[in-house]
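Would you mind writing out the residues of a protein together with its fold in token form for me to study?
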Amino acid sequence: MSGVPVEGVYGDGPYPGEFPYTRGIHASMYRSRSWTMRLFAGFGTAADTNARFHELLAAGSTGLSTAFDMPTLLGRDSDHEWAIGEVGRAGVAVDSLSDMTELFAGVDLGQVTTSMTINGPAAPIMAAYIAVAEANGTPRAQLGGTIQNDILKEYHAQKEYLFPPRPSMRLVTDVISFCAAEMPRWNPVSVSGYHIREAGSTAAQELAFTLADGFAYVEAALAAGLAVDDFAPRLSFFFNSHSDFFEEIGKFRAARRIWARWLRDRYGARDERSMKLRFHTQTAGVSLTAQQPKINIARVATQALAAVLGGTQSLHTDSYDEALALPTEEAARIALRTQQIIAEETGVASVADPLGGSAYVEWMTDEMERQAEEIFADLDRLGSGSMLEGVYEGIDRGYFVGEIAEAAYTFERAVNAGERITVGVNAYTDGDDRAPRLLSIDPEVEALQLKRLEGVRHSRHDDRVRTSLDGLAAQAADPSINLMPALIDAMSAHVTLGEITTCLEGVFGTYREPEVL
């Protein structure tokens, strides 16, 4: 601000852009390209969310991020018995190609990158997105974006799985293989620690469980016959940025270092792009309070700053009212403006890894790495030398669920005892607790979506629907066949998401979580 000229980087090497990329994956970091400002959006009908997408793009958002409602996340149609009262509530309802078409109406999918947060039914949802893009003249090879498709953390934390772990992993590797062959700009898996942290894990557990899942996907893809450098450059990650400022920065720096070393030394990567861990960050929704909700703006700003100083490639900032309801347009705009202030006014983007060399930050980075390596060693033993088998075994034994539950209990007990301060909750409680104006979902949304779904079923060609589902079932029974072409065909025939899920359940079965005492 005073006009003092600054260099692009300070301190000793290895510098940003150099192995093991602790200080960042690019030499110039944000001096040459800012992070993508991507706000998570989705509610009501596809038309409602489409309008929010256009508002965010007009306000300066540089990417889209799609939140689906609970029935869609569970692979069910809006008229399923599980969907009653949930349609369009926590995200947008997508039952068929018709909804996906309306969701992205007027958006040039060849120019805007899109993130879709969905896991169990990720493959059919991605098939619908491809079908919409190609119907609008955008070849699949031009599509850029990310589908979360991280089924392993569903068994650890989020619980939105459809099938048992092993056939679910087959769907993930089918998407990885399909993208490696036909969609070079697409990230086929966003390995997510976000939901692990939101479930109550510590920062070190989030780091270790997430990277362990990433190693498991690498081993699954290698077992499917892919070469590591053919797919690893397109694997991406998704982390939480919580309130312990320096711990979070250390976590991000340790993540890059660990991934680089494991990909080179254990999995034989030679392409440096395979070793560079790229990640999206979201501020910690679980840290937001319903009490004095506007002070959440300060929490979000601090967490977002930690993500930027940790070197994130894209960032979602939560809206201050999310402890109470889906974000209003005003709250979403403040969340976006928070990122823009950090990027444009603070100067933190002028120097790559500006905290590199700080004794405390370097110690914290080492400590996060040390704790994560201890967990990797345990999982490696569980899998007799295979991280993939170790993760499967950890799921079967309830290891991940138990560890996260214990950490969440410890944290909550500290808050209740007043040993950990949460402003507005157990300290400084004399503020304004009045709820701001909230976004409410009109009950009519569910009726409209059911009518829309009924219309799809009446207007399609039943013979083509039957043929598509029969073909999908037959191919699902043969693990040597990649299911993505059959899923694109089914979605193009207006087969619904729920019908596809039911078809695959007939082959793969369903999953029941083991009890953890």
